[in-house]
Amino acid sequence: MSNKTEFHKKCFFCSKEIEEKKTLEHIIPNSLLAKLKIKEQIISGNFTTQYSRVKVPAHSVCNNNFGSEYENKILSIIEDKESLYELINKNNQLEILYSPSNDNISIITTWLTKIYYGLFYNDLLKTNNLEHKDLCKEIISSQNFKLTQKSYQNGYGFNLPSSLYAFKSNKNDFNLKTLIFPSSIMLNLEGLILILCIGDGYLTKNYLNTLNIDNLRKYLFENDKLNSFPTDLFAFSEITAIRLNIPKQPSFMFTDNEMINLSLNTFVDKPEEYYKIDIDNVEFQRNEILKSFGVKLE
């Protein structure tokens, strides 16, 4: 069986083979695309397609789990951007025991995770570029995505414990960016910038605490007034550069009725020194990421 046939017949959500007539799940709801007026916008890169055509195979029951009721929740949550911004920034919990939840933080985390992996899954099925196809296969075959699917199979939701951030900008143009390493996604929804470090076990959030995040937010606010300043891309690059420099990897364990986030456990003396990051290297890598997005640095 070819790789293409294998992934065409597997459910995006639960990874099991689809023996019934498969359904296709829109990665970004058409209702949201229409609201943002980007339904026909083209995604550029190694594979070019319209956002409205980004779909993945799924069992009908899995598809229904992400059907109109779920989409309506997403639309309702992001409609009130001020409340969502406040909610994300007040959420300082770093859960160790992870169980099913329908709170807004979990819904947004699931949604961004779905978009991230869905984009690469769609590309894997459709691109003729062999190099890009291999890259997409590597992402879809990654341990994080397999654990995400396992979390879904076990009823904990289609996501892993992930650091979620929200920022504001006066620049309202829709923008969507992903990074492969570290696995992360950024969405600018009419000036509300959402950033998710996917499956990092809250490692980034644990480092980027109240003081650090306040300093970053202040810097973004002061520079957002400049038309040339890429607020969303700078925030995304800064956070992902920090994640790259945290000398620790996420770790998860499944039991019969819950998932345990072991990522924050430490068994070393003076962990604040052992896990200290190199600020100069963060700045260097942030600038490299910005350049990869086409930002010209002065």
From TrEMBL:
Domain of life: Bacteria
Protein name: HNH endonuclease
